[in-house]
Known about the structure:
This protein is α/β, with parallel strands linked by helices.
Amino acid sequence: MTDRPPVLASPPDLLREPLHLGSLPLPSRFFLAPMAGYTSLAFRLAVRALGGLGLVTTDLVNARAILERRPRSFELAETCPEDRPMSIQIYGHVIEEMRQAARWAVDNGATSVDINMGCPVNKVVKSGGGSALMCQATAATALVAAVVDSVNVPVTVKMRLGWDDQNLSAPALARSFEQVGTAGVIIHGRTREQGFKGGVNRDGIRAVVEAVDKMPVIGNGDIRTLADAAGMFAETGCAAISIGRGALSNPFIYRQLACWAATGDPGPEPTFEERIDVMVAHFHGLLDRRGERTACLQFRKLIKWYSHAIRPAKVLSHRLINLASAKLFDETVELIRAEGPTSPLPGHFEPRVPVPSGPIDKW
Ligand SMILES: Cc1cc2nc3c(=O)[nH]c(=O)nc-3n(C[C@H](O)[C@H](O)[C@H](O)COP(=O)(O)O)c2cc1C
């Protein structure tokens, strides 16, 4: 679904070299970024089946909620043997809770544990977790060190560039985290103050790459096309990239990136049938794991992207927007397959994922 830019840069040689997070070998340098409400096991498996994916991460899970055995946190952290390598992302600021939650994550199948230090949302920040930790270097490093010591899998940290433009703490923090044994950092190239506004500061990500010794730095933010990916590698020197919203509108982007890395060409565009197949795999994955009601409700918010990519007749996409049953889904999909697309299939398009907006202290 990605538009082929007129001239796509050659892939950097780095992409042909294997990447390890600590001792964990990864199949590619192209990761799926955690997105609360979207990166379900069903979605991860559907995207993984398309190829090219290096690492997935779950939605963020509250460490205390894990220890309190809240069913919702177990749902968020759900995985299966086919879902490897995968990282469970935890957040919190109480060291003992984070240590125990990390151990639980490993027992639950995580091949790495990711600590959230990027979340700007008030609920997370007020509790001392997410991007609040970026303002307290000593406490943040002690927390990371404790988590690293508590598990025998690689530990990563996902963070923003800093709290605001005057406090770009990510380079110094990344260096401290590396010194206490962190296997990698994922950097969303915005500050907490920016929220999701403005552009991604690739110079800021490069400053993190330059601050660390050997630890891989994973660049994140606004990668929607292969040209964006090429730019992120070229301008930051990052070891890998992490893609969030771009994967919702184009779940084939990892396969295209892998093809580009191997041959210099993104390979064929996904066909109509392939686009339908990934939608079906996603829906049925949700159905099998969450039951009909939840699957239908979750799919209502996803259907706009699939409809945009598949171009069914309006009357058929409306049946899915108000999806009420699995039977209706299957029947509608068969009609869509039989009718074919109503207009040429699009290349890249902007995924309009709702993100918090307005004054950031109100999020
Ligand atoms: C709806 C939504 C939910 C998100 N949830 C999480 C999360 O649970 N943990 C996290 O570290 N980042 C989360 N993020 C941030 C993304 O992982 C990513 O850093 C950000 O969207 C920028 O990358 P992108 O432009 O590729 O989407 C979320 C982003 C969105 C849009």
